Amino acid sequence: MATHVYGTPCQTERLQEVADAAGVPLVYDSAHGFGSRRWGVPIGNFGYAEVFSMSPTKVAVAGEGGLVATRDAGLARRLRTARDYGNPGDYDTLFPGLNARMSELHAAVGLNWLAGLPERVAHRGTLVAEFAAGTAGLPGLRLALPEEGDVSTFKDLTLILDADAFGLTALQLADALRAEGIDSRRYFHPPVQRQRAYAHLGQAGTLPLTDRPADSVLTVPLWSHMNAPVVRRIAAAVARIQPYAERLRTA
Ligand SMILES: Cc1ncc(COP(=O)(O)O)c(C=O)c1O
Q1: What was the pLDDT predicted at 207?
Q2: How far, in Å, CA of 129 to CA of 64, rounded?
Q3: What's the pTM?
C-alpha cells in the first residue's frame, strides 16, 4: 500500500513495477489525493484500487466517508455488497460485511464540494508558491512539493526540516510559530510504532527510516479560501524566526 501523502502524487509507475515484480496488488491510500494528478492523469486511475477519504480535513469533503476507485469489476461488486452488510439485495448475506454506506446527506455535501474542486486545488497551488517564494533560500528548509508536471491537492502545506542546517527541530519551530500566533501540526508524529496503542509491540526503536521524516515535518495552515497575505504572513514568520534559531535553542 502506497500513500499520496499531503496530496503529493507517488511515483506510480515505479511502484507498479515493484508490485508487479513481487506479484502483489498495489493499493493506494489516496485519502489526500482527490484532485491530484500524476503526469496529467488524475489520482484514482492507478494500481488495483485507490481509496479516498472525504472526512473534514480533506480538500474534497463529504462530512465523513470516502470512495474507492478501481477498474476491477469483481472488486467493485464485492465492495458494493460489503458496504451493505454483505447483502447482495435479497438480504441473504454473501459474506460478513459492514454498514458502510454513504448517507444521502453526506453524498449531497460531497457533491457540493466537488463543484469547484479544480479551482480550489489551483488556488492552493498558488498559495504554496507564495509560501515557497517567501521562504526561499532558508537553510535546511524544503517543502513537500509534487514532481515537475504533477499536481498536488496540497491537502497540507508541509515543511521538511533538516534540523542541523535550519537550526531548529520541527518541534522547536512549532513552538516559535505558536509564539507568533501561528498554529501548526506535526503530521504524522508520533509514527504508529511509537503510539501508545502499539508501543506494547516493542517496535518503537526499530524503524529509523520512519522516525526520520516523522521528526522533521511540520504542517502550517493552508485552507482553500485563504488569501495570499495570510500565507505571506506565515512565510514571513518562518523567515523571521530562522536567523534567531541559535538564540531560541538556548533560551
Ligand atoms: C493518509 C490518510 N489515510 C487515511 C485516513 C483516514 O481517512 P478516514 O478518516 O476518512 O477513514 C487519513 C485521515 O486523515 C489520512 O490522513
Answers
A1: 94
A2: 30
A3: 0.94
- Say whether pLDDT at 197 is over 90: yes
- Residue 154 Cα, ligand 1 centroid: separation in angstroms? 15
Look at ligand 1, atom 5, and give the residue with the nearest C-alpha. Answer: 31
Enter the C-alpha cell of residue 203. Answer: 517496535
Ligand 1 centroid, distance to 4 Cα (angstroms)? 11
pLDDT at 250 (0 to 100): 86
Q: What is the mean pLDDT of residues 84-112?
A: 94
> Whats the size of the chain, residue-wise?
251
Given this structure, which CATH class describes domain 117-250? Answer: alpha beta
Q: How many CA atoms lie within 13 A of 37 on its CB side?
A: 13
Pocket residues: Cβ below 6 A from ligand 1: 3, 29, 31-32, 53, 55, 57, 66
For residue 40, what is its C-alpha cell? 496529467
Q: Tell me how far apart the alpha carbons of residues 235 and 217 are, in angstroms, rounded to a whole number.
A: 16
C-alpha of residue 139 to centroid of ligand 1, in Å: 32
50 forms beta bridges with 28, 69
Question: Does an H or E element contain 217, and which?
Answer: strand 217-220
The domains of the chain are located at 2-114, 117-250
CA–CA separation, 241 and 251 (whole Å): 13
54 CA distance to ligand 1 centroid (A)?
8
Pocket test for ligand 1, best of 1, 53, 54 (most atoms within 8 A of CB): 53
CATH entry 3.40.50.920 includes domain 2-114: no
Is 202 in a helix, a strand, or coil? coil
Q: Atom 16, ligand 1: which residue's CA is nearest?
A: 31
In this prediction, residue 120 has a pLDDT band, given cuts at 50, 70 and 90, of: very high
